[in-house]
Amino acid sequence: MQRGRPKKRKVTAKVVNPREETDFTEYYDNLNGEDVLDVKVIEGQTESKATHDVISSTALLDQLYEDTAIRDYVSTRKLHDKEILDRLKRPCFRHIKGTNDCEESLESPSRRYMKLGYHDIHSRKGGKRSTETYTRPDEGNYGLVKGGLLYNDLFRVLYDMDEQDKLFVEHINKLRDKKGLNPTSYELFETSMTFLEMQDFFIEQLLPPPAKNQNAANERQIIRASMYGSDDGKGVSPEEDQCCAVCNRNDCDSSNAIVFCDGCNIAVHQECYGIPFIPEGPWLCRRCLISRNQNQRCLFCPSTTGAFKQTDNGYWAHVICALWINELYLANPIYMEPIEGIQNVPKNRWKLTCYICKRRVGACIQCCRNSCFLAYHATCARRADLYLRLKKGIKGAIDNQSTLVTFCDKHTPREWALTHGTRLGIEKTRLFYSLSNIKRRSEETNRISVTSDIKKELTNTKSYLFRWSTHKGAPVVPILFVKRLQEFFKKEHLDIQGCLEFAILVSKYWTLKREASKAPLIRRPDPSNYSSLTDEQVEERFTVLNKIKEDVLKLTDISESAVKHSEVSKALNDEIINQAELIHFPQLYAVDSLGQLLLKCDKSNVLSNALQDKDLNSQGVPSGQEIIEKIALHQYQTTQTLINDIEKLTDYVVTHESKSSGIYRLLKSTWGKMKKRKYTETLRMEKLAADTGIEDLKERKREGLQTKKTEDKGKMVREDAPTSKDIPIAKRLRE
Length: 735
Description:
Elements: H1 47-52, H2 57-64, H3 68-87, H4 99-105, H5 111-114, H6 163-178, H7 186-206, H8 214-228, E1 258-260, E2 267-269, H9 270-273, H10 286-290, E3 308-310, E4 316-318, H11 319-324, E5 329-332, E6 337-340, H12 347-350, E7 365-366, E8 375-376, H13 378-383, E9 387-390, H14 393-399, E10 404-407, H15 414-419, H16 422-432, H17 435-444, H18 452-459, H19 462-465, H20 479-491, H21 499-517, H22 535-584, H23 586-601, H24 606-609, H25 624-632, H26 639-656, H27 662-691, H28 694-702, E11 707-709, E12 716-718, H29 726-734
Antiparallel strand pairs: 1-2, 3-4, 5-6, 7-8, 9-10, 11-12
């Protein structure tokens, strides 16, 4: 008797091919592809008229066919198609105001705002609006750019309003209307927000970094690493060296040192993070440099710690995520930024769920085992201590991503599993990303346990009232900003009623906006700029840079001259070698010159490749490969020997090979046109070298050269200089 559940039968779904891939016999049973079709000709029409005149389809049917069945079929088909079209949904349209309609209703800003960076969208010519697309002016004129931010720079409005700002301005205007004050404009609001952002930037440069208890911070990191693991290398014991946040190794050398960030205390190799030169002073990672004290989310994983770099569209991502996701790449491998290729990541990768953190966030990688499809984030694998190996280092991983190998906990190599607790690491990672734990950790961040009396005493102190930021990290606007904003309005002749009240409302709104966005509202400058320098110091640095630029250009010219000198020296040395061979080994020089001419004509390497399958040695004919080898090894002692081998091969090719073959065209056409002249010149050169006293000249050269001073023009003259008889001989040999 069979027990248990019955076995389910496998139901195979019928595969249905698309219509264009289906044979026509499945739709038309009675249609035979071999049948001959009848052709009917319209009588009474010339060929040109039947070809070029356009005839309606119904008239052509009436003329071609007298059968009513065809006409009935066509009419029935039309009615059927019409019924199908009537059942389909028809598109509906509604008119939406475009940018042109909105711009027509806008008023041109006043000249007071235009000098602050606003642009008139209406053309002054002929009373018509300009059709050209507006583009921002050169950002080099702005104050908030790298290397050009100074306190007394020309002010330019950089803030752009959104829908929320529009509602806030309308709310302010309602309040002002109740008090009988004039409404404010959108331009005034954007100007105020830009001014507050710039003032906050200058204050941040003056504020010292917050004092931290380094020992307490290290103990807290060690405890957190033991409880939840670490994906950035922090939290190791004092006896151990902190590992790199990218490659997870702590070995280094003088050319690839480990650098610590003075902001977030992560450790990275120079090659892993793109640090060609270590600065003398403090060094900040890219996230601490651009977005200080802000938790940035990675675009490909849920982690907020580690070594970050920016993508080409302004988002943030881990360097380790960019390395392990195959579709991503680093545009500049020297500086390891920006991260590009986000559009190449397939949709299926974005839909994968990490089996470690149980989250469907970002893009996951998968186990390298062919039969395993487990997906996990790169940072989750690092926190869980899974197998992540760079076979050829960081540079090899950038050049070839197939050198990256990773395995899940089930397929981890045995050697790795013996020294790393992957199962325990997975549990720590899941605990770290659990919802209740995230809420508790966010509440306990930077919290100091104090009693209620001490807390009351601290909140009543004067320093608490003058704090620089809220409990969520948003900056608090000091009264100095409000006063400066009022002075700015007066300076730019932006008259507004109730200026103090308006400045206070905008300052409060700016604080709330910063608290919600957790980032600057305009494009902030790079903190490594020259804002702390005076105009004279900046000008002095520019002068030094211009001198360095001139020196570099001079070095470029010197390098080009050195290259030309090397080329001329090489050509001169080649000529000296040729002359030496011509004088000391004239016969070999003649043979080699003829052989080199033959090889120069063989541009397609026909001699070495042709006639390889035929036995030419039995017929006493040398092959092309044998001739080439003898020429290269200088085995031809006389020119006539080389000529005989070439002619034997030519006679064989003319007799046995077709005229269209490559070797026939080479030996009969290309070489045949010039061989008589080349043979004659080479034999004449060889005979001339044998008939002249070249051996006597060589013997005299071995005895040494003696020189003496002459009074004519202070030149050195050789006692054994070649006589007038020898000079024409040398010239004739060279020719």
